[in-house]
Design a protein that fits this description.
Blueprint (H helix, E strand, L loop, with lengths): L1 H17 L13 E8 L2 E2 L7 E4 L4 E5 L4 E9 L2 E9 L6 H13 L5 E4 L5 E4 L5 E7 L3
Antiparallel strand pairs: 1-2, 1-3, 1-9, 3-4, 4-5, 5-6, 7-8, 8-9
């Protein structure tokens, strides 16, 4: 009696081990120009020039609201890291300077990317917080 139950348990366990609910993450295409809609959960100022451009060679550039910036990024499927390397140093009105600081603070904190149902890029932290929300600019 114990042998058939044991055999059934081994078969069920063996079959359940073959199943996998994990699907490989699909790489999200970042290439292009993206308007920054929010940074660190705060919406950017309407008509702000804040944008990020991702090039196919791993280069990162854009406008952080007041100044131009450049750097590099690395992507592996949905894992993403942004490494801003430098920026111009022009002064702007205070509100744009504060927005610039939020954008520059958020970039190195990004660890992954997700595309929303509406097509926006959600650049997220390890904890899942939206650090930057981007929408694609029309070419």
């Amino acid at each position: 009696m114990i042998k058939p139950i044991f055999t059934a348990c081994v078969v069920i366990f063996g079959l359940s081990a073959c199943q996998s609910n994990s699907h490989p993450a699909e790489e999200i295409n970042l290439i292009g120009n993206w308007y920054v809609e929010s940074a660190l959960s705060e919406a950017v100022i309407n008509h702000s020039p804040a944008q990020i451009s991702f090039a196919a060679d791993g280069k990162l550039s854009g406008n952080n609201s007041c100044n131009q910036f450049f750097g590099e990024y690395e992507q592996d499927q949905n894992q993403l890291s942004l490494q801003p390397a430098g920026a111009s140093m022009m002064a702007c009105v205070d509100v744009l300077m504060q927005q610039e600081q939020r954008i520059m603070k958020a970039m190195p904190m990004v660890t992954n990317v997700k595309r929303s149902k509406s097509g926006k890029l959600l650049l997220k932290s390890d904890a899942g917080a939206n650090l930057l929300v981007l929408s694609q600019l029309d070419e």
